[in-house]
Amino acid sequence: MVLCDIGNTTFHFKVKKKDFKLSVKSKKLPDIKDKIYFISVNEKATKKFIKKYPKAIDLSKTINFDTNYVGMGIDRKVVCSGVKNGIIVDVGSAITVDIMKSGNHSGGFILPGFKAYKKIYPKISKKLSFQFSNNINLDKIPLRTNDAINYAILKSVVSPILDIQRDKKLPIYFTGGDAKILLKYFNNIDIKYQDNLIFKSMKKIIKRGK
């Protein structure tokens, strides 16, 4: 069984115990003979994927995820379906934060991903070009521009997540390619780091379907 999460920028494959990513602009996808299950938020990339793997199974047609949230992407639905109680923070091209309580989705919010943040400041002014770092003390106001920008980026991400956690008293599930950047800012809080939570959730959906 092979799993694939098709995002805005990559095909993310899970083959047995290994996972790898390919750009959605890749001209060649790997030859795969096993049964493939996938989800996608990228219509153009999906067409390329289906052309290569015409028998691949789209899990978005089988998942049953009830929420009052309008416009929730299939990737978020899949990740959330794998957590009964928790705050799910998926740190990728965007940073999504979703709340699950007793198996019910209570809502969430979206922030730019760190790669997007890195592009914002130089567009404002060349003088705001900077080196990204997560080695920043968020309890101390910076006195250097480079630190000031990093402080603003990290504070804007960390603070609302902490506010939600204090209010809901739920564990935080960190997942996604850039999740490790944030872990150090959540000391003394029940956190769970699961790099490929999306694939674990996909497997649960497949198992329930069988």
Short overview:
The chain is α/β, with parallel strands linked by helices and 210 residues long. The chain contains six helices and ten strands; from the N terminus they run ββββαβαβββααβαβα. The strands form two sheets. The chain has a five-stranded mixed sheet, with helices on both faces. A five-stranded mixed sheet has the order 8-7-6-9-10, sandwiched between helices.
Summed over residues and divided by their number, the pLDDT gives a mean of 94
Q: Report the biggest beta sheet as strand number plus sense, adding barrel if it closes.
A: 5 strands, mixed
Number of helices: 6
> What is the approximate shape?
globular
Q: Helix-strand pattern, N to C?
A: EEEEHEHEEEHHEHEH
Summed up, the domain count is 2
CATH superfamily of the largest domain: ATPase, nucleotide binding domain
Identify low-pLDDT runs. Answer: none
CATH topology of the largest domain, which one?
Nucleotidyltransferase, domain 5
